[in-house]
């Protein structure tokens, strides 16, 4: 198995009328409200509210349950709002009563101590606003000039996971996360939202530009550090005491290339023979003008993939495989789900295929054959890049040379990391000093007419490596001067030369590598 790897109110009526004109079912609730709370002033509330109050026992039971399973406070009803106005009206209704009822916004109820409950009051099921948003609960604004100025306008009811996924589709990400992405934006912003990134970006409440809040008086206000700043700072970390957050403008930053390389490095860190891990980890790039290995992807998805590519210029593809047999077939899907969990690929861009083991191993040749390769001369460059410098390669080689030059090419760019501990340093092969290093291969089949252009590009890449001191090693090295060979083998050169003297003193073997010259001095003695 190979798996490759974002209303307005209609009618206004008196609350007291609500009892009279509503169905028998709502009468129970409203009777209760009326008997519990007496109307002081004649406030007009819309029909909408009474229609959207749910007092089913099962709903009330749910609303009196949270993650902690310790506290159970039963509300009179749950409001399932179909608009923001409705929440504001509900609050105004309560304000209009001699004895107001309490109101609690309920996000994802990840509280453990009844914080989102309202005994004898009304719980507002914020999740219901999803219907009102029409799929626009998260709207991303990407600043092309400076991605650090990007932001997301997010409904207070939205779940962080959805914010993340939407942002990633634009190559962006929120800056600070809690350990659970299943919480709502409103729910964490009334606390702080702390996690692994606080040390760098501060808590989630420090990454908010603006809020829409319905205050305890029922007024909808927009606030920020500049505008209504008391409300703004009060609400952030204010435990829901001052208002209900209906929109938050969340700071976003670039979701950089390191998300990809970190995922790859994570995947190869699971490398024990008995680890439950992927059995194969590779990666490749999709760039404009490169005929990619698209035969893997479903044809109907190609437009979607191409539009993502047009948007981002370069796509980084993870290629993973998990082997299975009859005995493990039942759990393969679960295993794969678990293994890809937490990887930061663009959601919904995961494709899977079941292949015979041999066909998987032959996938590259099959793809090459599909592209009409391997005819024509080749312009290939394979390099080992120290793990710590891989993002420099992304900038300097992928973006600044290959993407910019936009040469139409027939081939592939491979990139994947390896762990040095699986290599033996006694062996001759030259590899970088770091524990993790990447193979970066730019492989093209060209024509005799274009060969020079492509080889020039390779030489520019090599020059970039040299100038930036990245300390790469060539894999399948060639075309080097004597000094360059010495540099290539580095500390291994001496042993390499000694071995040559010992095992092939006349330098007869493999002259095509261009390392040693045939030794005919011995004859001349
Ligand atoms: C498994 C797990 C891991 C967690 N990890 C972390 C962590 O790493 N870091 C961290 O900081 N926290 C963490 N938490 C705590 C969590 O962030 C808070 O409990 C948060 O309030 C949960 O959000 P929620 O949407 O479920 O809120 P709810 O439980 O639904 O509500 C919490 C409070 O917020 C109010 N509220 C909800 N929505 C709004 C809104 N839109 N406007 C105003 N008030 C609102 C509610 O009335 C209630 O008072 C974790 C919780 C769990 C269960
Ligand atoms: C409501 O549901 C709870 C939990 O299922 C149950 O204990 C209770 O008896 C029910 N109440 C009514 C009035 O049906
Ligand atoms: C809130 O609404 C969502 C979406 O309709 C639903 O899945 C959830 O069960 C509701 N929660 C409560 C407490 O009613
Ligand atoms: C490399 O592999 C070794 C042996 O499995 C392991 O201990 C080490 O953590 C790995 N290094 C990285 C950076 O993954
Ligand atoms: C790359 O070149 C092709 C034509 O050769 C052109 O259609 C395309 O717009 C170019 N892309 C960029 C980013 O310059
Ligand atoms: C070999 O390397 C030199 C520079 O060191 C370069 O000018 C030349 O083009 C290279 N030849 C080939 C075939 O790549």
Automatic annotation (TrEMBL):
<dbReference type="InterPro" id="IPR050432">
    <property type="entry name" value="FAD-linked_Oxidoreductases_BP"/>
</dbReference>
<dbReference type="InterPro" id="IPR016169">
    <property type="entry name" value="FAD-bd_PCMH_sub2"/>
</dbReference>
<keyword id="KW-0274">FAD</keyword>
<dbReference type="InterPro" id="IPR036318">
    <property type="entry name" value="FAD-bd_PCMH-like_sf"/>
</dbReference>
<dbReference type="InterPro" id="IPR006094">
    <property type="entry name" value="Oxid_FAD_bind_N"/>
</dbReference>
<keyword id="KW-1133">Transmembrane helix</keyword>
<dbReference type="InterPro" id="IPR016170">
    <property type="entry name" value="Cytok_DH_C_sf"/>
</dbReference>
<comment type="similarity">
    <text>Belongs to the oxygen-dependent FAD-linked oxidoreductase family.</text>
</comment>
<keyword id="KW-0285">Flavoprotein</keyword>
<dbReference type="Pfam" id="PF09265">
    <property type="entry name" value="Cytokin-bind"/>
</dbReference>
<keyword id="KW-0560">Oxidoreductase</keyword>
<dbReference type="InterPro" id="IPR016164">
    <property type="entry name" value="FAD-linked_Oxase-like_C"/>
</dbReference>
<protein>
    <recommendedName>
        <fullName>cytokinin dehydrogenase</fullName>
        <ecNumber>1.5.99.12</ecNumber>
    </recommendedName>
</protein>
<dbReference type="InterPro" id="IPR016166">
    <property type="entry name" value="FAD-bd_PCMH"/>
</dbReference>
<dbReference type="Pfam" id="PF01565">
    <property type="entry name" value="FAD_binding_4"/>
</dbReference>
<keyword id="KW-0812">Transmembrane</keyword>
<feature type="domain" description="FAD-binding PCMH-type">
    <location>
        <begin position="71"/>
        <end position="255"/>
    </location>
</feature>
<dbReference type="GO" id="GO:0071949">
    <property type="term" value="F:FAD binding"/>
</dbReference>
<dbReference type="GO" id="GO:0019139">
    <property type="term" value="F:cytokinin dehydrogenase activity"/>
</dbReference>
<dbReference type="GO" id="GO:0009690">
    <property type="term" value="P:cytokinin metabolic process"/>
</dbReference>
<dbReference type="InterPro" id="IPR016167">
    <property type="entry name" value="FAD-bd_PCMH_sub1"/>
</dbReference>
<dbReference type="InterPro" id="IPR015345">
    <property type="entry name" value="Cytokinin_DH_FAD/cytokin-bd"/>
</dbReference>
<feature type="transmembrane region" description="Helical">
    <location>
        <begin position="12"/>
        <end position="30"/>
    </location>
</feature>
<keyword id="KW-0472">Membrane</keyword>
